[in-house]
């Protein structure tokens, strides 16, 4: 095999696919999505051993876009990958104490334009209780 990368077997990388960020709705432990909070947040991500992050928000992709922009501004040559992760709280319960199911949908970041994700959310049929 002539490809240099083929001389290695599997490469293991750390991924964290459920990561909330500044401005997260319903679970905001990082504060507002302001410039200072986002700068500190992306600096922490850049210094992490984790290579791929699922930036999670409830019923929204706002955090994904704010983190991706802040990271690109701070680290234009950065190698971290961000995946949009939308979290839904369903009405179904899974336990005797009536805890609700949370469902995550991860979107291919190459297809995750603001226009396409806005269309996805506007076309999504939901039932609000």
Shape assignment: globular
Low-confidence stretches: none
Number of strands: 4
- Beta-strand residue percentage: 25-35%
Specify Rg, calculated over alpha carbons.
17 Å
Structural class: alpha/beta
How much helical structure, as a percent, in the residues?
25-40%
* Number of H- or I-type helical stretches: 3
From the N-terminal CA to the C-terminal CA, the straight-line distance is: 58 Å
Query: Whole-number average pLDDT?
Result: 88
* Order of the strands making up the biggest sheet: 1-2-3-4
Query: How many strands, which pairing sense, and closed or not: the largest β-sheet?
Result: 4 strands, mixed
What's the SSE pattern? EHEHEEH
Structure characterization notes:
By secondary structure, this protein is an alpha/beta fold. It is about 30% helix and about 30% strand. It has three helices and four strands, in the order βαβαββα. It has a four-stranded mixed sheet with strand order 1-2-3-4, covered by helices on one side. Helix 1 packs across helix 2 (about 60-75). It is globular and about 50 Å long.
Question: What is the gist of this entry?
Answer:
The chain is about 30% helix and about 30% strand. It has about 130 residues and is α/β, with parallel strands linked by helices. The protein starts with 13 loop residues before the first strand and ends in a 6-residue tail after the last helix.
């Amino acid at each position: 095999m002539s490809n240099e990368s083929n001389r290695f077997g599997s490469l293991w990388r750390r991924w964290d696919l459920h990561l909330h960020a500044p401005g997260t709705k319903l679970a905001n432990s990082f504060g507002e999505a302001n410039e200072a909070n986002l700068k500190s947040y992306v600096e922490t991500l850049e210094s992490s051993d984790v290579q791929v992050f699922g930036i999670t928000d409830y019923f929204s992709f706002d955090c994904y876009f704010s983190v991706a922009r802040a990271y690109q501004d701070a680290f234009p040559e950065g190698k971290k990958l961000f995946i949009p992760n939308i979290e839904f709280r369903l009405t179904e319960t899974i336990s005797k104490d009536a805890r609700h199911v949370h469902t995550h949908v991860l979107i291919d970041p190459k297809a995750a334009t603001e226009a396409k994700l806005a269309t996805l959310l506007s076309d999504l049929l939901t039932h609000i209780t």
